[in-house]
Write a structure and sequence with these properties.
Layout lengths: L1 H28 L8 E5 L14 E4 L18 E7 L2 E6 L3 H7 L6 E3 L2 E3 L6 E3 L5 E4 L8 E6 L3 E5 L2
Antiparallel strand pairs: 1-10, 2-3, 3-4, 4-9, 5-6, 6-7, 7-8, 9-10
């Protein structure tokens, strides 16, 4: 029985260490400052019709359906909402993390297909890869927000 307890203790210690390591690791790469994000997308709304197909995206900002500042993302650059799977949506801030880290420059990435590209530094970010850099100088992914799908609505928030 004591051998089992020793193994259990070791497993628990490794699990706790891994949990703290992964949470610190995520914060290290989340370089864009937090802003309040909280809005709903109705998939029956014609403005968001593209999100009914996997692999499509829409760009959201404060003027989209009069959603206001809670849909603006950092510095008003907007948010990309991408449909990755039938029940999975990915919401990413459009602010290039590379330019922000360099000199606090707030540049909105452009989106073409499944990639977002910074017009200033040339970094490319893969939307299906949760905004991870695929080319260019960026070592940081795009800031990600929560996207919860409830069947007809996608709730995007950072809480």
């Amino acid at each position: 029985m004591s051998a089992f307890r020793s193994k259990l203790r070791i497993f628990l210690l490794i699990s706790i260490f891994s949990l703290f390591h992964s949470s610190c690791h995520r914060e290290k790469y989340d370089v864009i400052p937090d802003v309040l994000v909280d809005f709903y997308i109705d998939l029956t709304d014609p403005e968001f019709f593209d999100l009914n197909a996997i692999g499509n995206h829409v760009l959201i900002d404060s003027s989209t359906n009069n959603m206001g500042y809670k849909a603006a993302g950092y510095d008003g650059n907007g948010i990309i909402v991408y449909r990755a799977q039938p029940d999975e949506f990915i919401a990413l801030d459009r602010t290039c993390p590379h330019d922000y880290v360099l000199d606090r420059t707030s540049i909105a990435v452009d989106v073409d297909g499944i990639y977002a590209e910074c017009p200033l530094c040339g970094s490319s970010f893969a939307l299906p890869g949760y905004g991870t850099p695929s080319s260019g100088p960026s070592q940081y992914p795009l800031k990600m927000y929560r996207a919860r799908f409830t069947g007809q609505f996608v709730h995007v928030s950072n809480y």
